[in-house]
Amino acid sequence: MNQMRAPAIVSHKLRAWSGVPALLLALLAVFLLHIAVGAKPLPIQTVIEALTGFDSTNFDHVIIRNLRLPRAVHAIVVGASLSLAGALMQGVTRNPLADPSLLGLTSGAAFAVMVSTALFGAASLALIPWIAMAGALGAAAIVYLIARLVPGGATPLSLTLAGAAISAFLGAVISVIHLLNQDTFENLRVWLTGGLAGRDIALLAYVGPWMALALLAGIVLAARVTLLAMGDEVAQGLGIRTGLLKAQLLAVVVVLSAGSVALAGPLGFIGLVIPHVVRLYVGSDYRWIVPYAALAGAAYLVSVDIVARIAIPPREISTGIITAMIGAPLFVHLVRRRTR
Amino acid sequence: MSRVFILVAALTAMALPALGQDTRSYTAANGTFEIPVTPQRIVALNDQIVALPLYELGAPVVGSAGRTDADGNHFLRGGMDTLGIDYANTGIEYVGGFNGLDVEAIAALQPDLIIGGPYTDPGVAEQLQKIAPTLLINNNELGIIETMRAFADITGKTGNFEARLQRYRDNVARLRDYLGDPEDISVGLTFMFPEGAEMWVYKHSGNLGAIAQVVTDLGFREPAAITALSTNETNYSAELIQDLDADFIFGFYRQQPDATPANIRAAYEKFAPGWCQALTACRNGQFILLPGPTFGPTMAGLDLALELIESNIAARPFTPFAEAE
């Protein structure tokens, strides 16, 4: 029996490891493509010159270095973060529908940024991530509380329903605030649809280190998520302090979700769809799902942003609209595939 | 059931002021209605597009949709900087936002005429018909002059309007003489939001109020990239901002804390770093931010836009933009 299992494990490990360089290569390829193509066609020679000998008086160089490059970096950070956060949430809640937006984190972060802007004017760059984190954490706490209070406790179903209810409620409140104070929020219109255009690179400097730490922590904790996904009793039986682990994972997810909202607004479907896609390749082991989700999520959002920039020039489409347009049918396809 | 009866009775009572007035038929975008020959109590369903031109014509506006600032104060967008009016210094009452109308507040004003436009929710417009004839004037299709002419016709203030319009037309003719051949001068119209995440570009035939009318009447040329647009207005990629280069490029600021000239210039820089160096118009000091009333739909806006064009283009030397072959 053991002799039969050993080759299977080796084969799975080999398969999983072999995917990592492929994904890294894919991410590098779409990253370079993001920089090389855009609404304005530029010779590859110009792209190389902009990267190797930047001339700030040459607008073509500015396009590469100051428009495309920061946008690609934003897409990598946000895509990886949302996807990894979704994977962790699905593992912890044992709910395949869990993702930062479905469980209210994204709405909570967006709501907090909106309210603070309404009350105090445009919040300073340094404060936005903290405000978003407070909002995400508050929404997560309310969702969890509601789910705990219903008969049966915090089951995947009650968490999903509570999350959907809180997301809808916060969405409605955002609409009311928008309606009452149109002039202020006209400026946040693009951000609210989820977009990477005109994002401030300085904000990435504030949020980036925290998000990098959270990404690292997520990957480190991933092995224990596999045990947690088997059930609390099993995890406890294997020596996992489930309460502490859940708190750590919640912190990771909140930092990643709130940071992403601060950087790009509420982008949907990435945290929901990408973990399911990577599961098709690596199975149910979170040691692989989590890093794969991060890499695939980054590559996915970079690719989507290329489409948003070049689909109908000279116009640009909000990246969030494309993620929703692709994400929704992709998710339906995955669900149909799993139920067959 | 009794609540419905009371509501219908109340709405009927509200409609009583319209009874006894001489009426005539008027055909608007939403149908033909009997309206008072000389309306006495008009409610505007949009501040900038309806209330301001009506007030300017001298029409009796008793209520208007408006905006709410961060402190919760209601204001008429463009009111203070265009005509020096707001809720506080006129008898105009706030009746909600243009997309969040307060039907009860409108009914309480006992209007004899209500005027809205394509932005008015058709369902709400139907409700308002029970209070007073509600005309939806399609300002997008009519353009600002025909919209103002329609308002003048509806309110019976045609004499004042035609006199001001004639003066505007005379000034346009004079300025065209100063300019020589305006077709040789290219003008681009851009609109930047203070957040710097999005820039819009408008065709001269687009819906950008007075300034679009003025550049059309003067016969300026559009940059080829704008002429090639399939729609009258669109958001525009920062990468392609050089395609908009022209002899003159206009942008807009407003009398709002976040939309000052400095903020709007900073927003262009955030949107497209190095934009000013990239555009010969900007390098030559021919990128000009105009004040908010110039994109509003009033005669005051038309006059102001014309004067600013005159002083910026006709009254000083400028460096022509040489298009690349």
Automatic annotation (TrEMBL), chain B:
Annotated Fe/B12 periplasmic-binding domain ranges read 41-317
Q: Which Pfam families match?
A: Peripla_BP_2 (PF01497)
Location(s), subcellular: Cell envelope
Q: Which residues form a coiled coil?
A: none
Q: Which UniProt keywords apply?
A: Ion transport, Iron, Iron transport, Signal, Transport
Q: Which GO terms describe its cellular component?
A: outer membrane-bounded periplasmic space
Instruction: State the source organism's domain of life.
Output: Bacteria
The stretch of residues making up the signal peptide is 1-20
The record's Gene Ontology biological-process terms are: iron coordination entity transport
Q: Which InterPro entries match?
A: ABC_transptr_periplasmic_BD, Bact_iron-sidero_bind
Similarity comment: family membership: Belongs to the bacterial solute-binding protein 8 family.
Q: What is this protein called?
A: Fe/B12 periplasmic-binding domain-containing protein
Provenance organism = Devosia elaeis
Task: Provide the organism lineage as a comma list.
Answer: Bacteria, Pseudomonadati, Pseudomonadota, Alphaproteobacteria, Hyphomicrobiales
